[in-house]
Amino acid sequence: MKSPRRTIKELSVNIVDQIPSAKRNTRHNMPSCGVCKLTISMDFTDENSITVMCRNCADRYHGKCVGISSEFFYNLIQNSKKGWLCHICVQDKWVYMNKIDEKVNAISETVENNKVEILSVKSSCDAHFSAFADKINEIENKYQNQIDEMKLKLLAYQNQNQIPSTIEHHNNDLTYMRNLQRRNNLIVQNVPIFQNETKQILKQTIIKLALACGYEINDSDIVLCIRLKQNQDSSTDNQKPSSNAILVKLADVSIKDELFNAYIKNINNNTPLTTSRVGLPGNKRIFINQHLSPELVKVKLKAVKLKQMHLIDKLTACYNVVKVYKNGKWEKVYTIQQLDQLMETSTVGSSGTRSTNNLPTTMHF
């Protein structure tokens, strides 16, 4: 429920009681109206007597002198938390606010002027930077053209120098591919030529040779078995040789390696493979070798001579490399030049070393 509405007398007495004693009489000994200067009665028995006091200067005023009705006064007392300001204090407040506005306007104007000046400086800097960037781009383009021209000249020079290396690279690739084709192959030598010889007869002969070495292969393990043509420099007076080498291509490199290892084991056991062991006439030695490239054949032949001269200890050959054992380690050799360099390196500082340059590089075996 709303509290009952109090009378003006009750509100006025309450206001006076709340006024600090220091502010109850600041201008005169007795309260007087700030407008009409008449004494303000402190008798609140008159319901029509309305007085108000400024919350800022504590001066008192008749309600009728400042145009305050009883209704406005009642609402002021009930609702206003800040109190009432007289016309003098209101004017002073507006003067103060106007001064603040002036200062704010002055600051705003200064800020705007500074903003315009900053924008002008920025525009000037942008223009200078743009000109500077254009100059840099001009210099870069100039030197870039020179660099591009030098690159073209260098590329042309490199292309000229790369022709030999390109040829060498292709030759190496070709050698590698040819070696891959040989890796399943074996060369069998000193097998007599049969009368009315066929590929099947050669296959059966190779199977007998494998059995004599202690290794068993089947007909399906042999992919190719043919007689090679005799080199022109190995035949004389156009006479047909008594035997030509046989090229045997096996189905898998592991079969080739196992058959070759079995042949080497017989040699190491002093039971070399001969024609008589496989039911062929005579007692000639039969040789089985890896199918080497012409260059590696030369390397192996020279290495064999070096071994006979006790310049190397051991040697072995695979389809793509010849390995020589010297000074306690194995070395891979691919060319005659590498073999010569190896021998020169291993004999530097030693006296009485025999030259290897005059050793033969071709030999039929």
Automatic annotation (TrEMBL):
Coiled-coil regions listed in the entry: 133-160
KW Zinc-finger (keyword) present: yes
Keywords: Coiled coil, Metal-binding, Zinc, Zinc-finger
GO molecular function, one term: zinc ion binding
Tagged with keyword Zinc: yes
InterPro entries reported for this sequence: Zinc_finger_PHD-type_CS, Znf_FYVE_PHD, Znf_PHD, Znf_PHD-finger, Znf_RING/FYVE/PHD
PHD-type domain span: 30-92
Protein name stated in the entry: CSON012711 protein
